[in-house]
Write a structure and sequence with these properties.
Layout lengths: L2 E5 L2 E3 L5 E8 L7 E7 L6 E6 L7 E2 L7 E6 L4 E6 L8 E8 L3 E3 L3 E5 L2
Parallel strand pairs: 2-11
Antiparallel strand pairs: 1-3, 3-8, 4-5, 4-9, 5-6, 7-8, 9-10, 9-11
C-alpha cells in the first residue's frame, strides 16, 4: 500500500533553515507528481509546493516563493523541501502528498518557527 513518511521537522529560530524529507513506498514514485502541503493552527491546509513526476517546472505558494525549494530523487523514492529564511508564519504541520488517481497524505511533520 502507499506509504509516505515525513521527517526533518522541529523547532527553529526565525531566519533559520530546515530540510524536510519524505520517503515514499508502495507505488511507482517516478510516475506521479508530488507536493508538500501544510496546515497551520486554526487554518485550512494549503499547498506549499508541487513538483511533476520527472522534476522540471515546479510551483510554489506565493508566501514561500524564493525561500523554499522542492526537489525529488526518483531513484531513492524521496521528496524534499528545503526551507530557508523561515518565518513564524511558516509554523505548521507539513505533509507529503502523492498525486495518484487518489491523493495520499503522509502523517505530517511539525515545524515551529519561534525565538
Amino acid at each position: 500500500q502507499v506509504q509516505l513518511v515525513e521527517s526533518g521537522g522541529g523547532l527553529v529560530q526565525p531566519g533559520g533553515s530546515l530540510r524536510l524529507s519524505c520517503a515514499a513506498s508502495g507505488f511507482t514514485f517516478s510516475n506521479y507528481a508530488m507536493s508538500w502541503k501544510r496546515q497551520a493552527p486554526g487554518k485550512e491546509r494549503e499547498m506549499v509546493a508541487i513538483i511533476p513526476s520527472f522534476g522540471g517546472s515546479t510551483n510554489y505558494a506565493s508566501s514561500v516563493k524564493g525561500r523554499f525549494t522542492i526537489s525529488r530523487d526518483n531513484a531513492k523514492k524521496m521528496l524534499y523541501l528545503q526551507m530557508n529564511s523561515l518565518k513564524p508564519e511558516d509554523t505548521a504541520v507539513y505533509y507529503c502528498v502523492a498525486h495518484l488517481s487518489t491523493t495520499y497524505w503522509g502523517q505530517g511533520t511539525p515545524v515551529t518557527v519561534s525565538s
